[in-house]
Amino acid sequence: MPNATAVINLDIEGPRISRHLYGHFAEHLGRCIYGGFWVGEDSSIPNEGGIRLDVVQALRALDIPNLRWPGGCFADEYHWRDGIGPREQRPSMVNTHWGDVEENNHFGTHEFMALCELLGAEPYISGNVGSGTVREMSEWVEYLTRDGDSPMVRLRKANGREEPWRVKFWGIGNETWGCGGNMRAEYSADLARQYATYCRDHGDNKLYRIASGASDADYKWTETLMQQISCFGCEATPKNFFQGLSVHYYTLAGPWEAKGSATVFDTDDYYRTMVAARRIDRILTGHSTVMDVYDPGRTVGLVLDEWGTWWDVEPGTDPGFLFQQNTLRDALVASTHFDIFHRHAARLYMANIAQTVNVLQAMLLTDGDSLVLTPTYHVFEMNKGHQDATSLAVHLRGDALRRTVGDTELETLSASASVKDGAVLISLSNLDAEEPAEVTLDLRGCAVGEPNARILTADRPQDHNTPGTPQMVAPRPFDGLKATDQGLALTLPPHSFVTVSAPLA
């Protein structure tokens, strides 16, 4: 049986893991908003002001830190004034990006802010650069965040909200290299400076402006943005036009034209997926390295505000709705991503999985009045103790824990660790679909108390949850820990995710 040792120095602390790495994304796409978050006040499904309460309850259990809205590609055709005021008077619109369906704009700014308040999550609003105007976005910021008296303040009050909201996170466009305008990097960077200039701080609401950044490994795009705020190799503080820049990366096992099934796949497909998931480490390293040249003090954050698996839609569903099932394979993609995110905590400030409900790698699947927690949901729940914790380096020893996949070597053990509130949390994933792995946790620098462990696995990587079998892939207590002279030992079953927590003695 392959074996490895994970050396963790409990007394050598690394960068803080921002809670915003566990962020979420809700776009007007398929049944994410309408039928997912929003059912309307007349629905028989329990709701508050039209917002579905079982969804809220499930997400609150994750300590959801932020929610990105309204897109995605939809953001750059969304005009916020159409989504305020009495619902029956709001104009409808055609969602040309996703399904060419007509929407009634019943879920708009006030409804989104009410949702964030119910969730206890910070709002992250993605503004319209592609088909909007500087004035439109500037006035949206004013409408939401300004106090006192002004045209937008009076409009907000007329729509029933006296006090301003706190809205820190603002996206300056989305995928301007593609659906957000098919722009050149230089033109997009100029617009980022312009729009950011007119997205004002009102009162004590300080904005964190996020410029629309690169796709995958387009490091040139990142460099073009960084050149707008700093100089090559200099030590000057970057100009304060924007405080973060985004990057998007999706995990695919095959070509874009044939992504494969979410549930029907073989072992080769599984391993190709894990290789693709691991690639995010190289992607983040590349963008971070470019940013380091222009911002060695790391004052500008990297924001991975779209990530996750992308499969062919489920048979019989609208191709424009991007509905896919969610298996144990997807959960292991998520657990591996989080280990990588933790290692990049010095630069990576936020990450948003795509998407929260009923779209792509969702947390939740709804069908009428039923709600299913996906395997990916459980990874977020098991890992929530890492939010705002201090990262610990994990040094892995054991060359046997590898698989050859095509011309690539896949490391099949993934791990990360952190400390918070006098306790350590260790996350371990065995990506090997066929073999268990013996792992020794060599814990140094501090004694630990009685450990507690949980496991997420199933008979097959293809297993998933449905309304009829909601617990097929769900966490359960793991009793396989053994004390050793070095620390702890355990055997990870094939395709499994385990968390180990223990108080520091």
UniProtKB/TrEMBL annotation:
Q: Which InterPro entries match?
A: Alpha-L-AF_C (IPR010720), ASD1_cat (IPR055235), GH (IPR017853), Glyco_hydro_b (IPR013780)
Top-level EC class: hydrolase
Keywords, alphabetical: Carbohydrate metabolism, Glycosidase, Hydrolase
Q: What is its EC number?
A: 3.2.1.55
Cross-referenced SUPFAM superfamilies: (Trans)glycosidases, Glycosyl hydrolase domain
Query: From which domain of life does this come?
Result: Bacteria
Q: Which residues form the Alpha-L-arabinofuranosidase C-terminal domain?
A: 305-496
Q: Which reaction does it catalyse?
A: Hydrolysis of terminal non-reducing alpha-L-arabinofuranoside residues in alpha-L-arabinosides
In the UniProt record, does the keyword Hydrolase occur?
yes
Query: What Pfam families does the database record attribute to this sequence?
Result: Alpha-L-AF_C, ASD1_dom
SMART domains assigned to the protein according to its UniProt record, in alphabetical order: Alpha-L-AF_C (SM00813)
Q: Which family does it belong to?
A: Belongs to the glycosyl hydrolase 51 family.
Task: State whether it acts alone or in a complex, and with which partners, per the record.
Answer: Homohexamer; trimer of dimers.
Q: What is this protein called?
A: non-reducing end alpha-L-arabinofuranosidase
Native organism is Streptomyces longisporus
